[in-house]
Structure formats: C-alpha cells, structure tokens
Amino acid sequence: MGTNVITSLTRRAALQLNYICRHQSTTSTCSSYDLVIVGGGIIGCATAREIIMRHPNMKIAIVEKENALAMHQTGHNSGVVHAGMYYTPESMKAKLCVEGLKLSYEYFCKNNIPHKKIGKLIVAQDPAQIKRIDELFDRGTKNKVPDLQIVEKDCISKYEPKCKGEKALWSPWTGIVDWAVVCKSFAEDFRKMGGEIFFNCEVIGFAELTESKGSSQLSCISVQSKNRCIPTKYVLTCGGLHADRLAVMTGCDVNPRIVPFRGEYLLLNENKRHLCTTNVYPVPDPRLPFLGVHFTPRVNGEVWLGPNAVLAFSREGYRWFDINIKDCIELAKFPGLYKLCYRYFLPGCKEIIKSIFYPLAVKDLQKFIPELTYKDVKRGSAGVRAQAMDKDGKLVDDFVFDVGTGMIGSRVLHCRNAPSPAATSSMAIAKFIADKLDHDFKF
Ligand SMILES: Cc1cc2nc3c(=O)[nH]c(=O)nc-3n(C[C@H](O)[C@H](O)[C@H](O)COP(=O)(O)OP(=O)(O)OC[C@H]3O[C@@H](n4cnc5c(N)ncnc54)[C@H](O)[C@@H]3O)c2cc1C
C-alpha cells in the first residue's frame, strides 16, 4: 500500500505535513474514518450525535482545538432557549428555532438536564416600540411560536412584578439552560455510540490522500493538525469563530468573513435577584443586528444583564485587552468592516462608552426595572459572537452552509454562520445537516 499527499497548503507546510502523514501511514488509511467533524461546540456535537444515531456503523470523529468541549460560543452565551418570534418567516432561523425548541425540551426532560421554562417578556417603552410589539406577535404567529400573548400595560407586573413598560409580548415557552451542559451531553451520547473525540487538535489544512490498493486507487481527505493527520472520506466543519478560515482551506470564497463581536454581561448582586424572575427583553431595534441588553436568570440562580455588542480585537477576546495581531490585521484589511463602522458609527460609539462606564448601561435597564441601581450590579463574564459579514459590511442574518471546489472541496461541508439562536436550534440544525450529508455524500 502506498500513500500520496497532494496538499492544498503552502509548499513548506505541505512538506511538513506530508512527512507526518507518511509516518502515520501504517495505521492511517483511506478507510480510517467515514466522517471527521471539526469543532466541539454545540453544532459539531449535536450533528455528530445525529449522524451516528442514523448510521451506527460509520466511523466518526470530532476534532477540537481546545482541551475541552464548548470552550467558545457554546460555553459563553445567555443560556436562553429561544422561542422564535424575531426571525423572518420562512427563514432557516425561524424554522429551525421553532423545531429546535421542541426537540430541546424533549431532550432535556429525557436526559435530566436542568432547565426552566420561565418565559420571556419583550417590553415596549414608547409608541414606536408598541407598534413593533404587534409586528413581533404577527411574526411569531407566522413562525408558529406557541402560545404568544400580548400583555397590556397594567398587566405587565402579573408576569414580572417589578417590571414597567407600555405594552409587552409574553412568550411562555422561552426557557433557560446551560448550553455547555447540553453540548457535553450530546458528546457523551456520541461517545457511547462509538464516536471518538480528539482534543488539542487544531485543524490547519486539508489534503488529498491517494492510496493504491492492488491495481485500484482510493482517494480521501487528510485532516491535518500540527501533530496528527486523520484520513477520512468526508468532513464537516463547525468552527464557529474560525468558520471562514476553515472554509477558505477547501477553496471556498473568503466571504462571508467572521467578525467577532464581544457581548459583555453585568451580574446582579445576590440580594437583588428577586428583581428578575423571568427573561425581560427590550423591543429590538430593527436597524441593529442584535436583540438588545436583557435581563436573564440563569439555571444556577444568578441573574445576568446583557450582552452588549462591541467589536473584539481577537476572535477569542473575552476582555478589552485581549488583542490578536493576526485577527486585527485581517479586520483592518476587510473593506466590509469600514462600511459597517460607517453605517453603525453612532450606536457603535454608544456601546463602547456604555461598556467602559457600565452605570450608563444600568440607566437603560432601569427603564424596565426602575428599582435597579448601579450599586446592584458588578461586571460579569463575556462571550464573543461569530458574526458572518459580507463584503459590503452587511451582517449575514441566516444560517449559512457552503462547499468548496475540487476533490477536497466537494467532500467537505462547512457551517459558515451559526449565530443566535443556533444553540436553541442545534438539534434541528443537526437534522438539517444530516439530511444534507445523506443526500449529497450518499451516506
Ligand atoms: C454572547 C452570546 C449570547 C448568545 N446567547 C444565545 C442564547 O441565549 N441562546 C441561543 O440559542 N444562542 C445564543 N448564542 C449563540 C450560540 O451560543 C451559538 O450560536 C452556538 O454556540 C454556536 O455553536 P458552534 O458550535 O457553531 O460554535 P462554537 O461553540 O464557537 O464552537 C466552535 C468550536 O470549533 C472549534 N474550532 C474552531 N476552529 C477550529 C480548528 N481549526 N480546529 C479544531 N477546532 C476548531 C472551537 O475551538 C470551538 O470549540 C449566543 C452567542 C453569544 C456569543
């Protein structure tokens, strides 16, 4: 048996990887894996579980660059189980969120995952927002969000005693859960069914591997990290904050790019937790991409206020001073970013000021719960959103999947944009991807 690596990397990297792969060739052959999934976040783990359930004889591995699962977006989010009223009817987000919500609750109950269906109140504070409440109700109804109710001003306190507003939308199916716990549970199911997980394995390229067996030639993909090459027939990437980089490795267009937006939270002091018992959200501004700073109780009893949205200087930059030179240079060279900054200059500056002087952010929150003061909160943790952006600086709203070119590209499917509510939608996204792989790759 002979192996030959035709790589898509630079010549130097190719020679190095060629060396590693040749030295692994006694154990690594084209039949080693049927599918390798890059990324141990909730999308990678939910999909790995779904595929191995459908095809128990397939040999599947997840490769993750960190030493644990759920280390990025999946482990740094609001922990909300979204019900689906925000999203454009008929979009993938709308369909997969509503389906994902039902599948998630079924899964939590079956697997004893701590969660609470505490509901959500979207609260209007002025006449323009009151109109948006009615629009959100219509949108939610079109999206088949269960049991939405319009709440008039005088009844708001029945749902959240300390909350004030002019009108609200009540969603009883919205809930809370720790998505990192859910992700690890998916991974555990996957492992029990024979799946493997490799940690500390950052994928840096894909190469074509050809193997001669007698007179016939087999070809497959070598998934390459600094210390390991994993031969596989097919690949799925779910790289979150690095999704665009993984896609480019197989000949996909560089756009949409991932632009990292940090979302910082404030933490409500323990003696003030009674101020908030349900999710309280503002009416989202349709001109802005994110849902707005909200009050979110956590399953562990904490209450988080946030997240804001500020540009991060590192794709994994959880603090202001986390700066990654490579990420900054890429951002500086990306024309879409300048167009976005031009479009959102004023709201962007306001977010930065409120991030630095957080009592100003508390002022916004006081509109909803007037009893809240800046002394009741302290700085909490943060997450970084992997937001796909096109070259015109427009944020890509819906989930995006992509395939590359050539022999390698045609065997690799990339999940390029999985923003919120992708955690809620993860089980439905997993089914969507599994159907696509069954169809396109003939599993
Ligand atoms: C602040 C914030 C709040 C949010 N709130 C909610 C919410 O309340 N409800 C909700 O439903 N959604 C929410 N979301 C969205 C949700 O968290 C994400 O959509 C979801 O976690 C995406 O999962 P993922 O698997 O695609 O990405 P990730 O969780 O980021 O996982 C990607 C994985 O790929 C790995 N990886 C990347 N590159 C490589 C490589 N080259 N080699 C190997 N491994 C690699 C990374 O290390 C990472 O573990 C929120 C997100 C943020 C940031």
From TrEMBL:
MF GO annotations: (S)-2-hydroxyglutarate dehydrogenase activity
InterPro entries the record matches: FAD-dep_OxRdtase, FAD/NAD-bd_sf
Ranges for domain FAD dependent oxidoreductase: 34-435
Reactions accelerated catalytically: (S)-2-hydroxyglutarate + A = 2-oxoglutarate + AH2
UniProt-listed Enzyme Commission number(s): 1.1.99.2
Needed co-factor(s): FAD
UniProtKB keywords: FAD, Flavoprotein, Oxidoreductase
Regions that span the bilayer: none
Origin superkingdom: Eukaryota
Family membership noted in the UniProt record: Belongs to the L2HGDH family.
Name of the protein this chain belongs to: L-2-hydroxyglutarate dehydrogenase, mitochondrial
Species this chain originates from: Atta cephalotes
Gene name per UniProt: 105625974
